[in-house]
Amino acid sequence: MSKVKTKQIVISMVAILFALIMLSPFYIGIIYSFKTKQEITLTGLSLPTHFDFQNYVAVLEDGSFFKGMLNSIYTTIPSVILLMIICPMASYVFARNKKRIYNVLYSLFLVAMLIPYQSVLLPIYADMRDWGMLNTFAGNVFVKVGFQLSLSILICTGFVKGIPRDLEEAAYIDGMGYFGTFWRIVFPLMKSVLISILIINALFAWNDFQLSTVTLISEEVQTLPQLLYRYFGVHSVDLNQAFAAFNLAMLPLIILYLLLQKYITDGVMAGSVKG
Amino acid sequence: MIRNLKNSSKRKLCNVLFLLPACIVFAVFVLVPFLQGIPLSLYQWDGYSDTRTFVGLSNYLQVFKDPNITEVVGNTLFFTLLYLVGCNVIGLLLALLVKKTSKLNAVLRTIFFMPFVLSMILASFMFTYIYSDVFYALLGIKSFLGNVNYVNPAIAAIAIWKDSGYCMIIYIASLQMVPNEYYEAARIEGCSAIKSFFNITMPLIVPAFTANITLILAWGMQAFDYQMAATGGGPGHASETVGMYIYKNIFVYHNAGYGQAIGILLTAGLAVLTILLTSYLRRKEVEM
């Protein structure tokens, strides 16, 4: 028995060691962001003696950071909401119908996951320009939604297949129509999977760089990753201020993650079962 | 009977209505651009002017004569290999360490997955500072990102740090499905822990390998953000990937038709690799 216990302690120690390694970049980022340049040279990696918010103030005073964050919000929220409505609808049809045509369509959505972004950058850029959607949030949102459909539909369809049909049949007999059955019975039952796709799509939309690079070209509409790229690719910024900017940029997602982490891992697992 | 018929055609109509929004967005913003990309690869075009010249397959032929291609393909494959092996080995190791359900393990899993929520751009910039300032101040090592020999492994390390937690989640789900009796039986038969790992665990978690390997392969072959942010492809072209090379040809060198042709070849290459790997791994799957 004690041998088993020792083994478990060793395993936990190794795991904790790994956790410290994984956390170290965050640790460095946090302590450096609260130090002045001189303090970093003097004190290195030790905890700051006092919390100095000057670096954060400097980042926020520069209006462009705030602007980038707003642009990210404006493009992320509509993408996420749209996906949370249209994917469950499509998934409901795919999960409840066995006809060949639905299977073919479903497979088409799945195969699209193999398309590398680089093969569509030029056509998307050209189309956006021709359709007058270049540099518009709508254009960016639709492109992001398009490329996130497959995974969300995959996750939702798997989930709906697991919901017993009895409830729907009962609702149908009670005289609820197709729409009523879906919106009032099935959709509410999908709560957990909806939160999963919410967070997975929020991560994707917030963090996307490549699709945004070709749809949002002018500086006023660029999102946070683009702003970071433009800023840090050109300027050499002192690392204490750079880390303050990084921490601010990651904060919304870290909070969302810590609140909804159960759902994100559920979504990741559901998304990994292909076929 | 008539009522039923009416119901079923009404049902069909409702099905179509429910599919329509997703299908329209998919068709207009994914399918159409993808299909348009194929003819675009047959033109010589700068990407913005109204004139483009049809050149047939010459963009494709040029790929094989392009001296840069070997380097960018080599970089991409090297990066992908490191990223693939690193994420899967570390992801599986982490999964084995924290697969049991406990309070501590829940916290550890949260920590291991946390880097995944950052954007690739953000993770890369964080590491450029860590490599250049922190490593130098603490260890006196110059940034690996400036060294031709270490730049690809250094970028792969960023990607591995960010994504091993993702692989871990999939491995944990798979490990938890292996019935405990199998291990019990192996232990009674006198099987060592290592032996039972290779003979029981590994064959039963092949579906997780399939999922993780195909996913990281696809992400690695399309690598763009990490390199753009960390090095811009440098030093020289030492970390330039196929993804960057396509982007640069289209939007920087104004050689859009050529970039598009490489994009199509990348799509085909990735599809072939994915199908080969999947069918190989599927054959290794065993029924539980």
Quick gist of this model?
The complex is a heterodimer of chains A (275) and B (288). Chain A is mainly α.
Write up what this structure looks like:
Chain A has 275 residues and is mainly α. Chain A has two domains: 1-52, no CATH class; 53-272, MetI-like fold (Orthogonal Bundle), CATH 1.10.3720. Helices cover 79% and strands 0% of the residues of chain A. Chain A contains 13 helices and no strands. Chain A has helices at 2-33, 37-43, 54-61, 63-96, 100-111, 121-130, 137-161, 166-173, 178-189, 191-207, 210-215, 224-234, 239-272. The two termini of chain A are 43 Å apart. Helices cover 75% and strands 1% of the residues of chain B. Chain B has 288 residues and is mainly α. Chain B has twelve helices and two strands; from the N terminus they run H-E-E-H-H-H-H-H-H-H-H-H-H-H. In chain B, helix 5 crosses helix 6 (151-175) and helix 6 (151-175) packs antiparallel against helix 9 (206-221). Chain B folds into two domains: 1-33, no CATH class; 65-284, Orthogonal Bundle (MetI-like fold), CATH 1.10.3720. Chains A and B meet through helix 1, helix 4, helix 5, helix 6 and helix 7 of A and helix 1, helix 3, helix 4, helix 5 and helix 6 of B.
User: Termini separation of chain B (Å)?
Assistant: 46 Å
CATH superfamily of the largest domain in chain B: MetI-like
Distance between the termini of chain A: 43 Å
The structure class of chain A reads mainly alpha
Specify the number of helices of chain A.
Answer: 13
CATH homologous superfamily annotation of the largest domain in chain A: MetI-like
CATH fold node name of the largest domain in chain B: MetI-like fold
